[in-house]
């Protein structure tokens, strides 16, 4: 049956609505091949329909299969793009290597472009009044308290706080820090919030 | 004569800014609330955002002058981070709408720009264009270019995602509005009056304009 592979592809992508799977290069290639063979068959039959009108329906069915394949492939790409966007908000401009591996090269390039575009938008915020931009990826959650207690998960080294104090983040050490300054580190997995 | 006119203008402006710090925050909060609840993108309130950012800068400078142990400093800082969150979340909500409904927003925005009633700020507009271009390029390089000849085009109209204008919203009337026409699916139109302070659940579409001119507040 036509367009069966593409459904498999979409089902596979749907199975994990939150996490991202490795880019299925192989299946996409197969689907594109199917499209090409459909197209070739259609071309032959389309030329033949001049004499034989009965072939016309066959051509139509194949054409809708082609359309369907195209639409589903684009949907696959789009749903991945949506997931990749959330990666940008979670991890920032630099992806951890294990996440990076799940993206294809083209997707990674799209990610960098998205990231650059977002960064230049954020830089433009409040420029007229002398701000040099706002990082929207901070403050993802409404602030509950100014300071939170965090546990350090890895040896990070020195961290300079906004007020000029320097603290040393060592593995297994506990700190009481301003919420706004540890958000990024928490997302990177260096700090863990203890409630 | 002209000079004195300008003077009056200036002092007026200053006075306005004096009053607003609180009003600005209120306006910003209601803009944020509307933006979060409305299905479509609303006209930007960049003036309010910038004004508030200026205030924050000013307040931060003052707070930093206080000793760290001062209770006032802690309270002010908390308040500041709340305001910052509102601004960030407001801008982010707009961005996610821009991304989702990129194609219709850009099309409508082009028409609006001609009449000077643009909804997006210049940088949001730039962002939207860039976003759409990146998406198109990505889809082209990954699959569309490998496809057979007649399947290669990137069809904007087929790719467009439209906001659901028929979704229902909760709202509160700020002013009395008479004669809001509600379309019925059966074709029977109904007219209702919104009294000041009253609350309703209605379809978004008939009241979209009222949200934009501040006559009603989404809740």
Automatic annotation (TrEMBL), chain A:
<comment type="subunit">
    <text>Component of the GINS complex.</text>
</comment>
<keyword id="KW-0235">DNA replication</keyword>
<comment type="similarity">
    <text>Belongs to the GINS1/PSF1 family.</text>
</comment>
<protein>
    <recommendedName>
        <fullName>DNA replication complex GINS protein PSF1</fullName>
    </recommendedName>
</protein>
<dbReference type="InterPro" id="IPR021151">
    <property type="entry name" value="GINS_A"/>
</dbReference>
<feature type="domain" description="DNA replication complex GINS protein PSF1 C-terminal">
    <location>
        <begin position="144"/>
        <end position="194"/>
    </location>
</feature>
<dbReference type="InterPro" id="IPR056783">
    <property type="entry name" value="PSF1_C"/>
</dbReference>
<keyword id="KW-0539">Nucleus</keyword>
<dbReference type="InterPro" id="IPR005339">
    <property type="entry name" value="GINS_Psf1"/>
</dbReference>
<dbReference type="Pfam" id="PF05916">
    <property type="entry name" value="Sld5"/>
</dbReference>
<dbReference type="InterPro" id="IPR036224">
    <property type="entry name" value="GINS_bundle-like_dom_sf"/>
</dbReference>
<comment type="function">
    <text>Required for correct functioning of the GINS complex, a complex that plays an essential role in the initiation of DNA replication, and progression of DNA replication forks. GINS complex seems to bind preferentially to single-stranded DNA.</text>
</comment>
<dbReference type="GO" id="GO:1902983">
    <property type="term" value="P:DNA strand elongation involved in mitotic DNA replication"/>
</dbReference>
<dbReference type="GO" id="GO:0000811">
    <property type="term" value="C:GINS complex"/>
</dbReference>
<dbReference type="Pfam" id="PF24997">
    <property type="entry name" value="PSF1_C"/>
</dbReference>
<feature type="domain" description="GINS subunit">
    <location>
        <begin position="51"/>
        <end position="125"/>
    </location>
</feature>
Automatic annotation (TrEMBL), chain B:
<keyword id="KW-0235">DNA replication</keyword>
<dbReference type="InterPro" id="IPR036224">
    <property type="entry name" value="GINS_bundle-like_dom_sf"/>
</dbReference>
<comment type="function">
    <text>The GINS complex plays an essential role in the initiation of DNA replication.</text>
</comment>
<comment type="similarity">
    <text>Belongs to the GINS4/SLD5 family.</text>
</comment>
<protein>
    <recommendedName>
        <fullName>DNA replication complex GINS protein SLD5</fullName>
    </recommendedName>
</protein>
<dbReference type="GO" id="GO:0000727">
    <property type="term" value="P:double-strand break repair via break-induced replication"/>
</dbReference>
<dbReference type="InterPro" id="IPR021151">
    <property type="entry name" value="GINS_A"/>
</dbReference>
<feature type="domain" description="DNA replication complex GINS protein SLD5 C-terminal">
    <location>
        <begin position="163"/>
        <end position="219"/>
    </location>
</feature>
<feature type="domain" description="GINS subunit">
    <location>
        <begin position="53"/>
        <end position="141"/>
    </location>
</feature>
<dbReference type="InterPro" id="IPR031633">
    <property type="entry name" value="SLD5_C"/>
</dbReference>
<dbReference type="GO" id="GO:0006261">
    <property type="term" value="P:DNA-templated DNA replication"/>
</dbReference>
<dbReference type="Pfam" id="PF05916">
    <property type="entry name" value="Sld5"/>
</dbReference>
<dbReference type="GO" id="GO:0000811">
    <property type="term" value="C:GINS complex"/>
</dbReference>
<dbReference type="InterPro" id="IPR008591">
    <property type="entry name" value="GINS_Sld5"/>
</dbReference>
<dbReference type="InterPro" id="IPR038749">
    <property type="entry name" value="Sld5_GINS_A"/>
</dbReference>
<dbReference type="Pfam" id="PF16922">
    <property type="entry name" value="SLD5_C"/>
</dbReference>
<keyword id="KW-0539">Nucleus</keyword>
């Amino acid at each position: 049956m036509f367009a069966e592979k593409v459904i498999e592809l979409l089902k596979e992508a749907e199975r994990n609505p939150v996490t991202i799977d490795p880019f299925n290069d192989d299946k996409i290639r197969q689907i594109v091949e199917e499209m090409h063979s459909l197209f070739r068959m259609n071309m032959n039959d389309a030329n033949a329909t001049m004499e034989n009108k009965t072939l016309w329906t066959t051509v139509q069915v194949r054409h809708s299969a082609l359309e369907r394949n195209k639409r589903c492939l684009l949907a696959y790409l789009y749903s991945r793009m949506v997931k990749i966007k959330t990666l940008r908000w979670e991890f920032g401009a630099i992806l951890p290597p294990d996440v990076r591996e799940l993206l294809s090269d083209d997707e990674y390039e799209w990610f960098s472009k998205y990231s650059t575009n977002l960064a230049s938008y954020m830089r433009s915020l409040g420029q007229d009044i002398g701000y040099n931009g706002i990082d929207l990826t901070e403050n993802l959650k409404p602030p509950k308290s100014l300071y939170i207690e965090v546990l350090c998960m890895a040896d990070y080294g020195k961290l300079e706080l906004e007020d000029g104090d320097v603290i040393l983040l060592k593995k297994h050490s506990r700190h009481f820090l301003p919420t706004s300054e540890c958000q990024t580190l928490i997302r990177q997995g260096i700090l863990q919030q203890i409630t | 004569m002209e000079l004195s006119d300008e003077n009056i203008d200036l002092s007026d402006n200053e006075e306005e800014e004096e009053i607003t710090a609180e009003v600005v925050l209120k306006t910003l909060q209601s803009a944020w609330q509307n933006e979060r609840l409305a299905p479509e993108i609303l006209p930007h309130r960049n003036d309010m955002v910038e004004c508030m950012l200026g205030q924050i800068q000013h307040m931060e400078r003052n707070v930093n002058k206080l000793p760290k142990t001062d209770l006032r400093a802690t309270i002010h800082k908390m308040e500041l981070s709340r305001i910052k969150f509102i601004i960030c979340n407001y801008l982010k909500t707009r961005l996610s709408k821009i991304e989702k409904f990129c194609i219709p927003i850009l099309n409508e925005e082009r028409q609006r720009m001609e009449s000077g009633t643009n909804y997006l700020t210049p940088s949001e507009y730039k962002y939207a264009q860039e976003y759409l271009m990146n998406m198109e390029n990505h889809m082209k390089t990954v699959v569309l270019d490998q496809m057979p000849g007649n399947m290669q085009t990137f069809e904007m109209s087929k790719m467009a995602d439209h906001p659901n204008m028929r979704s229902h919203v909760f709202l509160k009337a700020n002013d009395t509005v008479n004669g809001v026409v509600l379309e019925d699916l059966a074709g029977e139109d109904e007219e209702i009056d919104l009294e000041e302070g009253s609350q309703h659940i209605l379809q978004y579409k008939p009241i979209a304009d009222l949200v934009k001119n501040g006559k009603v507040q989404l809740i």
